[in-house]
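forwarding from the other thread:

> can someone predict this with S-adenosylmethionine?

sure thing
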Amino acid sequence: MNFDDFYSRKYSYFSEEHSGGMEECLIEYKVNPCSAVDLGAGEGRNSLFLASLGFNVTAIEPSKIGAKKIELRAQESGIPLTVINNDFLSASGKLSDIGFLVALTSLDHMEFGYICKTINEIKRIIKPGGYVYIMVFTEDDPGFKKDLDNASECSLFIKHYFKKNELKKFFDDFEILKYAEYIKVDELHGPKHYHGKAKLFARKLL
Ligand SMILES: C[S@@+](CC[C@H](N)C(=O)[O-])C[C@H]1O[C@@H](n2cnc3c(N)ncnc32)[C@H](O)[C@@H]1O
């Protein structure tokens, strides 16, 4: 699925606000500005926030319109960052020594085999002691249960809903600093709906 249609609107489809959960982890664990990757950056809300804090951000986004929007917004704000308009596995070969990676509801838009390769690649590019903040949709999501009255209008585009503890198990060779699964209301886009989510904050062992 290509997100161009969603990103063609004047406003940012998935909200202008960066992830508060990501910010809390950065503060709590005193993650200093470093090389960072925003995997599936969308229209750049998290990339721009991280870059404004001094992180050296590479935003990876396959939607041409999303990638262009991130570049324009960075230029307008005078915030330097790098945008790669490609899918993660086509872009990641050039990356290494990354101190922080965020992937906010992007892994669920990949087929399972691609997710496995992506997670291996994330583990390669993160430097020892580096961090990941990942959020995915789970099988508790109304979209998985085809309860479409309570599901996001984007739910039909999700390719993989994560099973209980699946995301955590993928990172069992990292130090898990925070992990939670929960259901949350979302009023940021489309009709009011719910999401089943898992979020993980973890550190690669030294
Ligand atoms: C639900 S959007 C979330 C966007 C952004 N992370 C946010 O929270 O605003 C999912 C994003 O993942 C991107 N995506 C899907 N497959 C991808 C892949 N293979 N590599 C990188 N990004 C991908 C989509 O283009 C889309 O922008």
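The longest strand covers residues 174-186. thats all i got for now
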